[in-house]
């Protein structure tokens, strides 16, 4: 795998004591020991083949693997057996080992009687491969690639990034066993500032996590057979546990590990070095003298999304020299309240659906108007009559006649048609007023969803702070237990509260997810879009509302409140699109009722004209005669009265009058509901302004109380009950204080909605005029 190659060192063991051979045209057999021969490993082997083809030319032929060795499936015992087999095989000239497991076995198998090239030495010191100060292995029949970083250096850099007290080091068992033999080297690097725990990855994720219990950082190394499935699951679990992780490659960082210092783009260079080493040995070079060092640009890479997920913030010192995967700030699209409203007005599904209702109403008006457009027809007919009749018709009627006609009809006056046009226009206006009401509702719904997201984010932050405080108090409780100030009951209580707090935090994060998607739905953007709500500027928005700035300092008594309330009710009734829509519906019904009441005595006037031409005549009577005319026309004006239609007109009129009475009752009810809504919204807005000030004060005092009681608890002067009560009070007060502004925004927007004018969508000139009327009201 690429991870193995990125961090490899190469081993070369010769199966013959002399250095290489030079016979022209000789075939070179390369035995292969590989952890796997699929995926990234197959890609690397392909690159080695390409480089070997370029270097071998016509001097020699070669085979790599092809019956000599193969994959060991991350099994160390299988690697040892395959190595012994290849060493004993007289046809094998060189053994190439690829992968961390294979190369760890090879590193522990010296001295070497055959050349071995091992790709996968993680750390030459920890794995016991002697590395001289010179750029060579110094070991007979051995060469390898040595990068300018190691596991030990990674761990030291990891500790600079996050100063852990104990780090878990997870590797495939074969690598873990080798590292355990060199624990002294890790002791020198980490002790006494930090401890470490080496864990093998040949278990399930839960078992590995159990062995890692208590560590505050994890180095996730090469996991062999667990690379494809076990690694992602382990990294995800550690991230969810808020434990920083460090990996061996940049791909690890891209897959969710917090950081790595491994170089990138080593595949081609390492494959080239392998081919050069083989070719050098063919040319007579000693493997022990071949260069082993390869310099790559090594830079710390940090996954900022993972950092945010675990609540980790890198220091400025580390950030200054690190490459960041993802933005420093949390990703997603940021919206102000105005941005969210603008998006909703442009793409909200309900508004888009309602657009079709308005368009259909417009088409209904057009359709009604077509009654006064002329009706033009072309008619073709063929007529057959009795032969005797044709014979005696004096040639005016032929036995067989083919005729073409043009017919024009025009409605001149129709009370019913005029009433239909008028009614449809009223219904169109009613639909437009309903759309205006939907726009105002959409603005308010957007505000509710926007503040819901802000509240959810606030609760998440408060819950995170609360969990951190519980962890701190748990530590204090354990210290108090050790000092004899309290029993184990306090510790158990904080452990219980921690579990509850974790559940609350999980719920808070879930609420953020739900609130974000709900806002996305209202705004008409992709439902899984990462949406961030910006609360900045909400105070300025509220202060600038036409309903607030004109009455500051004026609502100081009941008289002022009632005066303002009466004014707002009058304005709300005048502006309410719901009342306007009902009024237009009533007008449409009144028009239809009037038409029905006049239907029996108001005539319908129409005109008609017909032109006929005989195209063909045949049979008896088809001869032209003096009374026959090939072309004929006629015109008429018609007046029509509907004197009686079986009582249908009377029944329909009765139904329309019932509908009219019903709509009038609805309008009266709607008007009273608007008056009530204005009163409730105004009281709620005033209340929110007052309670916000009190909530801020409450949070300040609750925090001071908590700090005092926490200090007393640490000194053994306060009980667990006192501290829990203080912490709960502070948590509740913090939530109420932070959310108070969002409730205040909601209340104000609700008041604007009931009045029928909203700052976010109304014409500024109209709101200014409204504010002027408010000022004039109080200046009287």
In total, the number of strands is 20
Return the structural class: alpha/beta
The unreliable regions are: 1-19
Secondary structure tally, helices: 24
Helix content: 40-55%
**Gross geometry:** flat
Q: How large is the radius of gyration? A: 45 Å
Give the SSE layout.
Blueprint (H helix, E strand, L loop, with lengths): L1 H5 L6 E2 L11 E9 L4 H18 L3 E12 L4 H13 L5 E5 L1 H8 L8 E4 L26 E2 L3 H11 L4 E6 L1 H8 L2 H8 L4 E6 L4 H7 L5 E4 L9 H11 L4 E3 L2 H5 L4 E2 L6 H16 L10 E2 L6 E3 H6 L6 H5 L2 E3 L7 E3 L1 H11 L1 H21 L5 E10 L2 H5 L8 E14 L1 H69 L4 H36 L7 E3 L4 H6 L14 H18 L1 H22 L5 E15 L12 E10 L7 H67 L5 H36 L8 H16 L1
Parallel strand pairs: 2-3, 2-4, 4-5, 6-12, 7-8, 7-9, 9-10, 10-11, 13-14, 15-18
Antiparallel strand pairs: 1-4, 11-13, 16-17, 17-19, 19-20
Please give a structural write-up.
- The protein is 55% helix and 15% strand.
- With 780 residues, the chain is α/β, with parallel strands linked by helices.
- A 7-stranded mixed β-sheet has the order 8-7-9-10-11-13-14, sandwiched between helices. Strands 1, 2, 3, 4 and 5 form a 5-stranded mixed β-sheet that branches. Strands 16-17-19-20 form a 4-stranded antiparallel β-sheet.
- The chain is flat and about 130 Å long.
- The relative contact order is 0.08.
- Mean pLDDT is 82; it is low at 1-19.
């Amino acid at each position: 795998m690429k991870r193995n190659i990125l961090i490899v060192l190469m081993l070369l063991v010769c199966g013959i004591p002399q250095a290489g051979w030079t016979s022209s045209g000789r075939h070179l057999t390369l035995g292969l020991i590989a952890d796997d021969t699929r995926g990234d490993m197959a890609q690397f082997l392909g690159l080695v083949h390409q480089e070997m083809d370029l270097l071998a030319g016509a001097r020699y032929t070669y085979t790599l693997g092809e019956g000599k060795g193969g994959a060991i499936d991350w099994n160390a015992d299988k690697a040892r057996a395959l190595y012994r087999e290849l060493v004993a095989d007289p046809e094998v000239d060189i053994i190439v080992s690829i992968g961390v497991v294979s190369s760890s076995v090879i590193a522990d198998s010296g001295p070497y009687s055959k050349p071995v090239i091992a790709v996968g030495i993680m750390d030459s010191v920890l794995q016991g491969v002697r590395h001289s100060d010179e750029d060579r292995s110094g070991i007979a029949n051995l060469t390898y690639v040595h990068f300018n970083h190691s596991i030990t250096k990674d761990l030291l850099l990891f500790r600079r990034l996050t100063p852990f007290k104990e780090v878990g080091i997870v590797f495939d068992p074969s690598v873990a066993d080798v590292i355990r033999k060199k624990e002294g080297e890790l002791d020198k690097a980490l002790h006494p500032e930090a401890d470490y725990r080496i864990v093998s990855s040949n278990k399930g994720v839960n078992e590995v996590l159990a062995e890692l219990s208590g560590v505050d950082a994890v180095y996730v190394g090469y996991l062999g057979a667990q690379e494809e499935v076990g690694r992602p699951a382990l990294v995800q679990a550690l991230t969810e546990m808020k434990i920083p992780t460090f990996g061996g490659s940049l791909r690890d960082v891209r897959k969710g590990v917090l950081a790595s210092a491994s170089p990138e783009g080593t595949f081609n260079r390492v494959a080239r070095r392998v081919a050069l080493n083989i070719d050098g040995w063919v040319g007579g070079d000693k493997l022990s003298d071949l260069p082993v060092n390869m310099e790559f640009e090594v830079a710390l890479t940090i996954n900022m999304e993972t950092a945010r997920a675990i609540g980790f913030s890198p220091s400025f010192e580390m950030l200054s020299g690190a490459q960041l995967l993802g933005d420093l700030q949390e990703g997603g699209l940021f919206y102000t309240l105005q941005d969210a409203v603008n998006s909703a007005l442009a793409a909200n599904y309900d508004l888009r659906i309602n657009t079709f209702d308005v368009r259909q109403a417009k088409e209904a008006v057009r359709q009604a108007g077509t009654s006064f457009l002329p009706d033009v027809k072309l008619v073709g007919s063929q007529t057959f009559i009795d032969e005797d009749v044709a014979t005696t018709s004096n040639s005016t009627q032929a036995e067989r006649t083919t005729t073409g006609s043009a017919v024009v009809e025009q409605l001149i006056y129709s009370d019913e048609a005029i009433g239909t046009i008028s009614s449809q226009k009223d219904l169109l206006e009613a639909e437009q007023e309903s759309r205006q009401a939907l726009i105002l509702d959409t603005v308010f719904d957007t505000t509710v969803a926007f503040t819901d997201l802000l509240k959810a984010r606030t609760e998440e932050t408060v819950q995170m702070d609360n969990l951190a405080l519980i962890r701190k108090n748990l530590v204090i409780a354990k210290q108090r237990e050790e000092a004899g100030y309290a029993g184990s009951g306090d510790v158990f209580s904080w452990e219980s509260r921690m579990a509850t707090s974790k559940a609350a935090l999980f719920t808070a994060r879930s609420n953020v997810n739900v609130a974000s998607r709900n806002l996305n739905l209202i705004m008409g953007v992709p439902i899984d879009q990462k949406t961030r709500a910006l609360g900045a500027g909400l105070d300025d928005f509220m202060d600038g509302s036409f309903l607030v700035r004109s009455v500051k300092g004026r609502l100081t008594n009941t008289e002022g409140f009632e005066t303002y309330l009466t004014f707002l009710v009058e304005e709300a009734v005048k502006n309410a699109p719901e009342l306007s829509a009902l009024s237009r519906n009533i007008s449409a019904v009144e028009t239809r009722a009037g038409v029905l009441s006049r239907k029996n005595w108001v005539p319908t006037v129409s005109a008609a004209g017909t032109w006929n031409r005989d195209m063909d005549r045949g049979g008896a009577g088809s001869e032209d005669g003096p009374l026959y005319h090939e072309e004929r026309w006629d015109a008429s004006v018609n007046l029509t009265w509907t004197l009686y239609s079986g009582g249908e007109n009377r029944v329909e009129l009765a139904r329309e009058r019932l509908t009219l009475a019903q709509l009038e009752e609805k309008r009266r009810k709607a008007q009273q509901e608007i008056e009530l809504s204005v009163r409730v919204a105004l009281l709620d807005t005033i209340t929110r302004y007052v309670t916000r000030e009190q909530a801020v004060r409450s949070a300040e005092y609750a925090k001071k109380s908590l700090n005092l009681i926490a200090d007393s608890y640490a000194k053994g002067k306060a009980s667990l009950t006192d501290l829990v009560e203080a912490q709960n009070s502070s948590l509740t007060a913090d939530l109420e204080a932070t959310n108070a502004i969002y409730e205040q925004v909601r209340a104000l927007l609700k008041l604007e909605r009931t009045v029928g004018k909203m700052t976010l969508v109304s014409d500024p000139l109209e709101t200014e005029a409204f504010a002027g009327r408010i000022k004039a009201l109080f200046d009287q």
